[in-house]
Amino acid sequence: MSLNRHAKRRDANENKIIATFVGAGFEVHRLDLPVDLLVMRGGINYLVEVKSDAKAKLTKGQQTFFETCRGQVTCVASVADAEALIAMIDQGDLVPILDFRGQIS
Description:
Blueprint: H1 14-23, E1 27-30, E2 37-41, E3 44-50, H2 60-68, E4 73-76, H3 79-90
Parallel strand pairs: 3-4
Antiparallel strand pairs: 1-2, 2-3
Helix pairs in contact: 1-3
């Protein structure tokens, strides 16, 4: 039995972002911590934090995770951000930590 009695509130744009990844052939799993999504394709896993808009900030825990994660982790705040991430992956680029406008931070 879970001790979490309240469902985590999801960002309103999350379903459209998930649909964008799925439409590009990715498998997507919703997570709660440390980020919102596990996005997979071609045997490679990407951790993706979804934010509601470009002004949203990482929590302290998320910030620490982003600073210490040795995997591929990024943020997206829109379908356009997800499409930009997919384009990078399709080009074979490593996924940088992105700010919410697709700029490398």
